[in-house]
Amino acid sequence: MKRETPHVNGSLRSEAFMEHAIGRHRGAVIRLAMARTRCAADAQDVAQDVFIKLLRSTVSFHSDDHLRAWLLRATHDSCVDLHRQAWRRHVEAYEDMGRIADHAISDAAIEQVMDHPVWAAMERLPDKLRCALHLHYVEECSIAEVADIMGCTEAATRTRLHRGRKRLAAELAKLGHTPYPAVATKKSLGSYEQPR
User: CA triplet 100, 105, 106: central angle to 5 degrees?
Assistant: First the structure.
C-alpha cells in the first residue's frame, strides 16, 4: 500500500487510495456489517458509510493492516450507531434472513456469507458473541484487536469467544448440523469467509 499523507485544507483521499481500500477490504467490511446487522441492505448502507468516512478522514495509515483495523472499527461503530437510531427500535430484530434478503442486491460477499451453513446458527447468537466470533475467526483479528474494535477488555473478549463457541455448537445442534470439531475455526467456516 502506498503511504498517503494526511489531508490538508479539507481535501479528500486520492482515487487510487480509495480504489485500493475498497478493492482490498470491502469484503471484510461487508462481512462484519452482515454479522452485526443480519440484513443485506443495512450491511451495504454501513459499508457505504464506512468508505465515505474513510474518504473524509485525516488519519495517516502506516500499513495495510492499520487501514484494515481502522475500517473494521469504523464498521463496528457504524453498526452500533445504526442500532441506536430510534426507528430501529421498532423493527423486528430477529427476522429470518431468507425473507429479508433482497435478491435484487447482488453482492458476492453478502451471498457468500448468507449461503454458509454456519450463518443460520451465527445469526441466533447475541450480538456481542456473534461479533467477537466473526472478528476473531473469520477476519482473523487477535484478541487485542477484537477488544479494541469492540471497545472492551481482552478478558471480556476471551469470555465472549468462549461463550460464543459453546452457543454456536448448541445452535448448530438445534439446526440438525453436527458441530464441527473446532466449530469456529478458519478451516471449519469454509465459504463463510471470502479472500481479501
Answer: 125
pTM of the model: 0.70
CA nearest neighbour of 129 among 154, 93, 165? 165
Please, are residues 166 and 90 in contact by the beta-carbon 8 Å criterion? Answer: no
Spatial separation of the C-alpha atoms in residues 39 and 116, rounded to whole Å = 15
Cβ contacts of 132 within 8 Å, gap of 6 or more = 146, 150, 157, 160, 161, 164
Highest mean pLDDT among 45-54, 78-87, 118-127: 45-54
By the 8 A CB rule, do 165 and 184 touch? yes
Whether 11 contacts 174, CB under 8 Å:
no
Give the integer Cα–Cα distance in Å for 88 and 106: 24
